[in-house]
Amino acid sequence: MLLIHCPYCEEDRSELEFRWGGEAHIARPENIAAISDEEFTEFFFLRNNEKGLTYERWRHIHGCGRFFNAARDTVSDKFLLTYKADLPKQPIAAVEEALAAAQDKVVETWEQTEGDAR
Amino acid sequence: MSSSSNIGAFRIKGAGRHTPARTARFTFDGKTYTALEGDTVASALLAHGVHLVGRSFKYHRPRGILSAGPEEPNALLDVSWDSARRQPNVRATVQEVFDGVKIASQNRWPSLKHDIGAFNDMLSPFFAAGFYYKTFMWPKEAWAKIYEPFIRRAAGLGEAPKEEDPDHYANRFAHCDVLIAGAGVAGLTTALSAAATGATVILVDEQPEVGGALHHDAATTIDGQNGYDWAQDAAARLKAMPNVTLLTRTTVFGYYNHGFLGLVERVTDHLARPGRNLPRERLWQVRAKRVVIATGAIERHMVFSNNDRPGIMLASAARSFLNHHGVALGRNVGVYTAHDSAYEAAFDLKRAGVSIAAIVDNRTDPGEAVLAEARALGIDVLTGHSVTDTSGRLRVASMTVVRNGGANARKIKIDALIMSAGWTPSVHLFSQSRGKLRFDEANQRFLPHIYTQNCVSVGGCNGTDDIADLVGEAIAAGGGSIAVTAENRFEWTGGMIGAAEGAGPDTAVKAFVDFQHDVTAKDIRLAVREGMHSIEHIKRFTTNGMASDQGKLSNMHGLAIAAEVLDRPIPQVGLTTFRAPYTPVTYGALVAHSRGELFDPARKTPMHALEAQAGAEFEDVGNWKRAWYFPRRGEDMHAAVNRECRTVRDVGGVFDASTLGKIEVVGPDAAQFLNLLYTNAWDTLKPGKSRYGIMTREDGFIYDDGVVGRLAEDRFHVTTTTGGAPRVLHHMEDYLQTEFPHLKVWLTSTTEQWAVIAVQGPKAREIIQPFVEGLDISNEAFPHMSVAECSVMGVPARLFRMSFTGELGFEVNVPADYGPDVWKAIWERAQGIGACLYGTETMHVLRAEKGYIIVGQDTDGTVTPDDAGLSWAVSKKKTDFVGIRGLKRPDLVRDGRKQLVGLMTRDPTLVLEEGAQIVADPNQPKPMTMLGHVTSAYWSENCGRSIAFALVAGGRARMGETLYVPMKETTIAVEVTDLVFFDKEGGRIHG
Amino acid sequence: MRKYSVFAIAREAMRAHKGWEQQWTSPEPRSSYDVIIVGAGGHGLGAAYYLAKEHGITNIAVIEKGWLGGGNTGRNTTIIRSNYLYEESMDIYEHSLKLWEGLSQDLNYNVMYSPRGVMMLSHNTHDMQSFKRHINANRLYGIDNEWLTPEQAKAFVPVLDIAKTARYPINGAALQRRGGTARHDAVAWGYARAASDRGVHIIQNCEVTGIRRGPNGEVQGVETSKGFIGAKKIGVSAAGHSSVVMEMAGVRVPLHSNPLQALVSEPLKPIFPCVVMSNTVHAYISQSDKGELVIGAGTDQYNSYSQTGGLQIITHTLDAICELFPIFRRVKMMRQWGGITDNTPDRSPIQGVTPVPGLFVNCGWGTGGFKATPGSANLFAHLIAKGEPHKLAAGLNLDRFRTGRLIDEAAAAAVAH
């Protein structure tokens, strides 16, 4: 069960209090009625589904009720940052470094290999 | 043998830590034995010389007790407290004996000594690993009918319980600074160190007492005390500290994300008469800031021919039975080892008066100190030798010893054999935390390497063998400054993984790697020969490591044998994943309180009790209990619903509509917000009026519906479907917070704030009139779709003039606490006038008579407003609303979409089945072309015939057409109609 | 290929099983192939087998990052059924079920397809309406699926609790008798053996790191950890990682990858005769031939490639299992694990051409891909061989998200796969 930092409550709380809200920073087109079928598909269906660093929305549904954004590694499930909904995408310094741990002499179970292969 | 004072012929006087006077009687396969309190079932049976306790999974080989701990693969027994409290597959080495417990062996018939299944052992040449993939294929049907049932009966171990479990289980959430798994020397020292810093500490150990390896290792001295005694003192000190929680008989079974751990505490399984209030087990869900893993190491067996006979045991287990339980495993014991630890077991046994037939050491260079001690004790040591076979049907009787590389085998008579191939660090929790291992080539073991969570491994599980180093590591891990001095008698060397000489080449030899699943060295070699080159393939093909001990003993051996055949270094062959739970966990403990009513709390309306008193039958709608119908004496559901339907239309009815979702939408931009969230236009709605609204998602499909009342310029009372309220609010919040944050709007769920009493029917006004204060509810002053705040029986209320029946109707909203009183008053008056109470079934029929849809029944997430005949509710003027673009997609505007229409059966007495499919040509062959399906179908007492709704391809263009509903036995002809079956002019609603 | 039979076993038993061949070979990759399939799960290996058997294409490499059958093929709860609602779904799942019925004989490998019945429990009026919609659609389409009363359901599964006092009482059930289970590993191994025998190269421990495209955007081959391997046709069947592989060709797909957990109990003597699913309380359960109760749990709510999941998912599933089968409260969980499922917005799979010439995709099977293995593989082979979908899989195309012609089994039925 994840432990999630709500940037509004400024508390670490259990995942049970939160609801995942999909990929972050996908703005609803202002001229939505006028966009093409392809643009609508892109907006509504297509997702990055990143393996590694992802930006996603959460809602502290059983807490303050606010939506916020998070940067999380989908391989380790570690949160790198959570931030308020009105902030732009936050660059995560040295994320790549942090995610690329030394591999030599490490014996992996299959699932770890699976997790690292990217 | 079994007099009450007989505590076993193999008890050693002066040995062990139990009190001789405290006995307990138990039965094993019907025979009564006496044990000492503190015995495990294993030690109690061994005390009486009972080694044969079970049969293996596949070959039904006789099996004894291999270990003294949770890694036990063989001694799995059926333990009963009473007929309902029966537990299969209990490890004899873990279960404590108590007075009166009944124990039985498993997987044998007719008896443990004479088991028909053992025939499999003779056929074993045919039953090589994976044989079942190669046969049982002919004839085609025979697998499921003949072979599989036979295999299923032969497989499995214990019998599942037959009765509902009368025990209860508990759950506790906890947080701590440090959780320490394992209370051996390393764990206790860490705890003392951490506790000294003031940190909150949870220290956990699976055994009844702390001490870990000190249970068997009687030669360690700590702070000048015998190690085991020091451990008990340390535990007492820790228990006295307010910041420490010490949990024994508790297993850390899983290490999950973000410092979350699952623990299970066995509270009563060791008690003869547990208090009724005690839970049997308690689940602990702990969020730890830091975790210290001090889980030690597990001794491995030697892999050689017939290494599975009863009487053959791990050396440390023999030592544990002797030093802790005071039980010798035999009178004349052989030793086969590749590690010094077995020597210490031999020394302890010898000193206790047990004869040691010989120590057979397959190394040429055992530790000098143990060698010297063996000589001093007069024990025969054969270095560079191997045990290549054993004999004895139900108990080991001899071992065959050969010089390595030599030919002359000799048989040595024994009545028990102890063995050690060295120690495997218990890295299970570390691996579950997703840490990465490295292979320690020198000692042939995997050790923790890269940590991904805030944890640290100390002691045996970290490969720290030297006890002084171990204590230092533990103190550092705890972060405190304390001093502990510890010393061992001997330093250990040695260890091997894989098949020993005695495993033989690929012949008929059975050298067991995994005892429970009967996986032998040759099975692993066969798997490799057949192309299984990944350790995961080998595991799955042979089932090595997949038994209930999850490979605690077998994984390393299996890996080494595979690596040898593949001629690859061990790290390249890989390691199978360590999965939770560390040891099996009772479902009941994981369920804890979530059963019955607490499994999923039922939501009940304020009037629920009154409805129950009035005789309501209830139905589940989402997690609500709703009144379904109100049968009178002698009425079945059909009769009750017919009466309710008639009465509502003739006189009136009272209905509990409280479950409808309610959301208060407030703020200067409230109308603009609703304009964006619903397909309808809201800015044109005047305060004091209400309107039916449809909500679509961006994809254009109907998401929810409901009546929305405008109470003031800036205040709307929104209703949603019963099941939809939470997701609609979430959906609204999502848009409000993230897409339209500039709008000044506040959303509040008010579903449970209002009790809603619907009063419908020609006499509805007459019924509620006397209760309404401060509002003229005449037709002129308060026409259909009006809403107002007023007072009902002196209670502040919101009154809606609305109808889901097509009759004159009102919905009285009063604060939930007043609901029952208002309901009582209204119902009393309604009853006097001749009205009835009605439930959801009647509501469904009445709304269907009028052509009103139910979202979720007549729509299914693929239906657009136009499909449902509701295009009038989609604003053509708005430039934006959620769904505006989705609705224009090619497939949503094509011809021939399924549209909601009415159906009338040609035979008016036939009621269609909801879910029935509709075709144009009933005589076409299968697969038939289906035009759609029946979404709602009822007997309409008011129409005197059956009525139905259906989603039909191109339905609105088919008015008057005859279609067919082919049922299993018959085909029903239907005519396509519009949706309104009753009062087509719609005059009644304005009455 | 040496035929497996009881006689072959008898012969080998006499000589310590020394004579068995490798079930599949592990060749070094050639510089190019006619077809490359990314992902050696059941779907990918099966597609290679059917390409060789039915379309005469044998110069194929199946490239696998880990070990064959190690993804969702080897991690699922092995449920097989075809009683879906929409014609597009019925087409492919029934095609699959028919292939299951003869798969052991076709592959000469006992995949232990066991038609012991799949029962779905109905708990309320909504379930009943939905199940009857399925049953009627299935019947008119020629697929078996029947309604049982609670008493009939209990007769079929004696350990079921049908008490009216239950929190979610059972008001009936839908039963597909031809539904059941199969041995998951054997499916991967059987296809691997049969494909390898027909000349297909199975290249394990080889990770695809890129998809190389030519001047017109067409595929030319794959970059791998063992170097570049050329091919004019590439089929991606990499469940759990479809987004990652498709991204290499610049194709975005409407998928979410979510952890899905499952667990087994300690082995028990036979107690549970079929597969039971309940969507309302979120549980599904069967008993393996080894005697373990095999229980499928839910997916975690967030995207993840971690193959782990929260304990709360497991406990919630067991809550439901113990409500339906109170006698199981004393049974013990022996092992839990996770896989990564690709989930589409309409919970139906995607199989079809892509905007990239020569690139074909088979993904999005969500939590239900195992049952589709033979059918999906068979139709994927057709797609790759002919360059256009078989009529039974035509509706599963990627374009449906643009047109809105979704196959929304989840919305229509609220039934888990």
Automatic annotation (TrEMBL), chain A:
Q: Which GO terms describe its molecular function?
A: sarcosine oxidase activity
Example GO biological process: tetrahydrofolate metabolic process
Name the InterPro entries on file: SoxD, SoxD_sf
Under the heading Pfam families, the entry gives: SoxD
Q: Which Gene3D superfamilies match?
A: Folate-binding superfamily (3.30.2270.10)
Report the protein name in the record.
Answer: Sarcosine oxidase subunit delta
Species of provenance: Rhizobium deserti
TrEMBL record, chain B:
Q: Which Pfam families does the UniProt entry name for this protein?
A: Fer2_4, GCV_T, GCV_T_C, Pyr_redox_2, SO_alpha_A3
Q: Where is the Aminomethyltransferase C-terminal domain?
A: 898-983
Q: Nucleotide-binding: is it a keyword of this entry?
A: no
Q: Which organism is it from?
A: Rhizobium deserti
Q: Which GO terms describe its biological process?
A: tetrahydrofolate metabolic process
Residue span(s) of domain FAD/NAD(P)-binding: 177-451
GCVT N-terminal domain: which residues? 607-878
- NCBIfam families hit by this protein: soxA (TIGR01372)
Keywords for this entry?
Oxidoreductase
Q: Which family does it belong to?
A: Belongs to the GcvT family.
| GO terms, molecular function | sarcosine oxidase activity
Annotated Gene3D superfamilies: 2Fe-2S iron-sulphur cluster binding domain, sarcosine oxidase, alpha subunit, N-terminal domain, BFD-like [2Fe-2S]-binding domain, FAD/NAD(P)-binding domain, Probable tRNA modification gtpase trme, domain 1
Domain SoxA A3: residue ranges: 510-592
The protein, known as: Sarcosine oxidase subunit alpha
UniProtKB/TrEMBL annotation, chain C:
Q: Which family does this protein fall into?
A: Belongs to the SoxB family.
- Localization (cell): Cytoplasm
Tell me what this protein is called. Answer: Sarcosine oxidase subunit beta
An example Gene Ontology cellular component term from the record? cytoplasm
- The record places domain Rhodanese at 35-79
Pfam families from the entry? Answer: DAO
> What lineage, starting at the top, does this entry show?
Bacteria, Pseudomonadati, Pseudomonadota, Alphaproteobacteria, Hyphomicrobiales
For this UniProt record, the keywords arranged alphabetically read as follows: Cytoplasm, FAD, Flavoprotein, FMN, Nucleotide-binding, Oxidoreductase
| InterPro entries the UniProt entry points to | FAD-dep_OxRdtase, FAD/NAD-bd_sf, Rhodanese-like_dom, SoxB
Its catalytic activity? sarcosine + O2 + H2O = formaldehyde + glycine + H2O2; sarcosine + (6S)-5,6,7,8-tetrahydrofolate + O2 = (6R)-5,10-methylene-5,6,7,8-tetrahydrofolate + glycine + H2O2
> Domain of life of the organism in this record?
Bacteria
Q: Does the keyword Transmembrane helix feature in the UniProt annotation? A: no
Q: Which GO terms describe its biological process?
A: tetrahydrofolate metabolic process
**Enzyme Commission no:** 1.5.3.24
* PROSITE patterns (UniProt xref): RHODANESE_3
Which cofactors are named for this entry? FMN; FAD
